[in-house]
Write a structure and sequence with these properties.
It contains 18 helices and no strands. By secondary structure, it is mainly alpha-helical. The longest helix has 35 residues. It is globular.
Length: 473
């Protein structure tokens, strides 16, 4: 398997960073545009939630499939297809006449997005096989999320205020085209040494689980938790989860290999990603409505208010990556949990005032940016470290899926709370997510955590010498 060397590796890292910039910039800009979209399209709060969560659900449901397919048919090929779909769908989103059409185009956009993040991580894992170099590369890659958070709110504010909310989708087109050209020029093709079979039943179960659960959380405040439709969705989600684990355990080549979760660090990283990104999704959604709806700020002014969060989200990931490479993931995760928790608790106090102090509000955003800035590198590195490179796409996809699941849950739950008029509860939920990150980092992030990835790698890797069972056919 060919791996680029020297300066070419830097170019491959740059291409992967462009892809994550494409996806993450779209999210941060879109949050600033939500109030303008609500006014122009006459959308409800639940409609705004669906413009975010329809994308997130589809993305989460397809990430693992995209990762395993890339391992099988070629990572560069799938990466290029994802860039084409995401770029084209972004152009369609800018033309959406109603909230319903916007949701449909966002779902198409998510199909392309599902082929970018996990596949880019698999490409990086193949390009930087040495653990210390990989951790630093992931730190740079995670720093691009910080760039999007730094540029997104301000750039989104300028675009929305001067041109309109539709312009936030235009920005994806030149970035996507540039990434597509560079991918063809510098990214080598790579794939798993042994092709894995598709798992359509497992894929269907994942889609039903995520879709039913998210629909229930978003629509329950309006329809009622005892509504037959909401109850049916909750039962369907619980039943699907109950069937997914034993079904995947019986397959020789499952969509999601349950053995990966025997590693305490891997399981801890997955849960940490869920809580951290639930906090992020809820935080961005609540703040967009708070700053522009309650405080009456313009889109640009709202974006500028969030700059402290953006700057720290930019500065901290490379530092986090270096610490992970030299000392392991525990310290960055402890900082992440403490920052998110402190931000949520302080937000309860600050936003409870009719005339909030902008200094204290800036501190709320700074603390959240500190926490989120330290979380990406350790959870991403832990997800792929010690596992066979043949499984890089699948492992990275599980990590990316946990992020999107967390984001979907955060938007759904925080949106429901804000829609019910209980804003203080939203900040307490965010603080609770930070406490969960703290607890998980203390229990699972140590170098000597039980059920380490090395043993799991041996278990997973040993299947290449095993015959394929009937359940895998």
């Amino acid at each position: 398997m060919h791996r680029p060397r020297g300066g070419r590796r830097t170019l491959v890292l740059a291409v992967c960073c462009l892809s994550v910039l494409l996806v993450s910039l779209d999210t941060t800009i879109l949050n600033v545009a939500l109030p303008s979209m609500q006014q122009d399209l006459h959308s409800s709060v639940s409609g705004l939630q669906w413009t975010l969560d329809a994308y997130t659900i589809v993305l989460a449901a397809l990430l693992t499939l995209a990762g395993s397919t890339a391992d099988r048919v070629g990572r560069r090929r799938i990466f290029q297809l994802g860039l084409v779909l995401f770029t084209a769908a972004s152009a369609l989103c800018s033309l959406a006449p109603t909230t319903g059409w916007l949701v449909v185009f966002r779902m198409v956009q998510a199909v392309g997005g599902s082929m970018l993040t996990p596949v880019a991580m698999a490409i990086l894992t193949n390009t930087f096989p040495e653990p210390r170099e990989r951790a630093r590369a992931i730190g740079v890659w995670g720093g691009v999320v910080g760039i999007s958070m730094a540029a997104g709110p301000v750039l989104g504010g300028v675009l929305v205020q001067s041109v309109g909310w539709r312009s936030v989708f235009w920005l994806n087109v030149p970035i996507g085209l540039a990434a597509l050209v560079l991918t063809a020029l510098v990214v080598p093709e790579s794939r798993a040494a042994r092709a894995r079979r598709a798992d359509p039943v497992g894929q269907l179960l994942v889609i039903v689980l995520l879709g039913a659960l998210t629909y229930a959380v978003i629509e329950a405040p309006g329809k009622g938790w005892t509504s037959p439709l909401i109850v049916a969705c909750l039962i369907a989600a619980a039943g699907t989860l109950g069937g997914l684990v034993p079904y995947e355990s019986r397959r020789a080549e499952p969509l999601i290999d349950p053995r990966l979760f025997r590693s305490a660090p891997f399981s801890g990283a997955t849960l940490t990603a869920v809580f951290a990104f639930a906090a992020l999704g809820g935080f961005l959604f609540a703040n967009a409505l708070y700053l522009q709806g309650e405080l009456g700020l313009s889109p640009l002014a709202a974006g500028l208010r969030m700059l402290p969060m953006a700057v720290l989200s930019l500065v901290c990931p490379p530092l986090s990556g270096r610490i992970v490479g030299s000392r392991g993931p525990r310290v960055p995760l402890l900082i992440a949990g403490a920052g998110i928790t402190a931000s949520g608790v302080l937000a309860v106090v600050v936003t409870g005032s009719a005339h909030p102090s902008y200094v204290l509000l800036a501190l709320v955003y700074a603390l959240f940016g500190l926490g989120f800035g330290f979380v990406n590198a350790p959870i991403t590195d832990t997800a792929v470290a010690g596992l066979p490179r043949d499984r890089a796409g699948v492992a990275a996809a599980v990590a990316a899926t946990s992020r999107q699941v967390g984001s979907a849950i955060g938007i759904a739950v925080i949106g429901a709370v804000v829609g019910a008029g209980v804003r203080a509860a939203a900040w307490w939920i965010i603080a609770g997510c930070g406490l969960a990150v703290l607890a998980l980092s203390a229990v699972t992030a140590g170098r000597r955590s039980p059920g380490g990835a090395g043993r799991v790698a041996a278990d997973v890797g040993s299947e290449q010498s095993m015959p394929v069972s009937r359940t895998g056919r």
